[in-house]
Design a protein that fits this description.
Elements (H helix, E strand, L loop, with lengths): L3 E4 L2 E4 L8 E2 L5 E2 L6 H18 L3 H15 L2 H12 L4 H29 L3 H13 L1 H6 L7
Antiparallel strand pairs: 1-2, 3-4
Helix pairs in contact: 1-2, 1-5, 3-4, 4-5
């Protein structure tokens, strides 16, 4: 059977197994279980806060950089999967939207980080990043849940 099948005159991505949203026998969509998004956000926020508080030496910075990579490593893949699961009938548009939002986030982060570094001090960027990340923890924790109504 092909990956794409025609259903009522429109394309529908057919998923078998795997994560993300899938149709059950009743045609209702169900979501995959929460994959620890809140834990990732807390870990990222903690690493940024530790960088602000403890980032005096190169060794500490190297350890924190390694921990940040471990905490953030799966985020882009998870985001791409969530976008594709949210729009299984139009994966190309969802992928384009994901890339656009990702690039916009990089640009805004660079702009705001540069403004903070110029106005205050370099570690203010770490403190602001930690505050924003920790403020997003409730949203990240609830993102894997889906209202089944």
């Amino acid at each position: 059977m092909s990956d794409v099948q025609l259903v009522k005159g429109r394309k529908s991505a057919r998923r078998e197994g795997g994560r993300g949203r899938r149709e059950n026998d009743g045609g209702r969509r169900e979501s995959a279980p929460d994959t620890g998004n809140g834990h990732r956000a807390v870990a990222l926020g903690a690493v940024l806060l530790a960088g602000f508080l403890l980032g005096d030496s190169a060794a500490t910075g190297a350890v924190l950089l390694l921990l940040r990579g471990l905490a953030y490593g799966g985020v882009p893949v998870a985001l791409q999967s969530w976008f594709m699961a949210a729009a299984p009938d139009d994966v190309e548009t969802a992928t384009g939207l994901n890339v656009s939002v990702f690039c916009l986030a990089i640009a805004l982060g660079a702009l705001l980080g540069g403004l903070l570094a110029d106005a205050y001090f370099l570690t203010a960027v770490l403190l602001a990043g930690a505050a924003l990340t920790l403020a997003a923890c409730p949203v990240a924790a609830l993102s894997g849940r889906n209202d089944q109504s």
